[in-house]
Specification:
- This protein has helices at about 30-55, 65, 70-75, 80-95, 170-185; strands at about 1-5, 5-10, 15-20, 25, 115-125, 130-140, 140-155, 155-165, 170.
- The chain is α+β, with helices and mostly antiparallel strands.
- Helix 4 packs across helix 5 (about 170-185).
């Protein structure tokens, strides 16, 4: 819940600050759905741009993957970013040259992509600072149900977890388990 207040300064002998009535802003389901759509539109714009270049048989690196950290910083929670940093550090130290934790790209729920989009988004649950949204992710000719959990940080909805219903993947739980197991091995 966000609060908005205003104040007025009085002059003269009874000078002081008078607080106006506080208005409380309640984020709506529509706000959350719009934010999820905006996030995925921005992310997929980059992927689809790279996809069109690949389809023209131009030799390019998968630049969309280079933008994962940028996407994470812009659209994911602080906790998600910290967890990704921990995993990347573990993988670079102990699994260099190996696949490590990341087997697939969570933004596209796969390794390859073509003509990405989302549809049929709906809010499954919502509190003041948390929301869960489910949608269909379209990649190639396939559509799969994806759920994202969001948190409101500094007035903005940020993704805090990705879930793939097809393979019963709760990515954040898997990440936490991986960090715990890898950290225990190194002690």
């Amino acid at each position: 819940m966000l609060s908005v207040a205003s104040c007025q300064v009085k002059s003269g002998s009874g000078a002081g600050v008078e607080m106006a009535k506080t208005e409380e802003y309640q984020p709506s389901k529509e706000d959350v759905l719009n934010q999820v759509q905006e996030i995925y539109d921005a992310v997929f714009k980059e992927y689809n741009r790279e996809d069109s270049l690949r389809n023209l048989d131009q030799m390019i690196d998968d630049a969309a993957y280079e933008h994962l950290e940028d996407f994470n910083r812009a659209y994911c929670s602080r906790e998600w970013n910290q967890l990704c940093e921990q995993i990347n550090e573990i993988d670079s130290m102990y699994h260099a040259g190996e696949l490590g934790f990341w087997e697939a790209d969570y933004w596209i729920m796969g390794q390859d992509w073509h003509n990405l989009s989302i549809s049929d988004a709906k809010v499954l649950s919502m509190k003041d600072t948390e929301a869960t949204v489910e949608f269909m992710l379209h990649n190639f000719d396939n559509a799969k149900p994806v759920t994202v959990q969001l948190v409101n940080e500094d007035g903005e909805w940020k993704i805090d977890n990705f879930k793939d219903a097809d393979v019963e993947l709760d990515l954040k739980s898997s990440m936490l388990e991986y960090v715990k197991a890898e950290t225990a091995k190194k002690k």
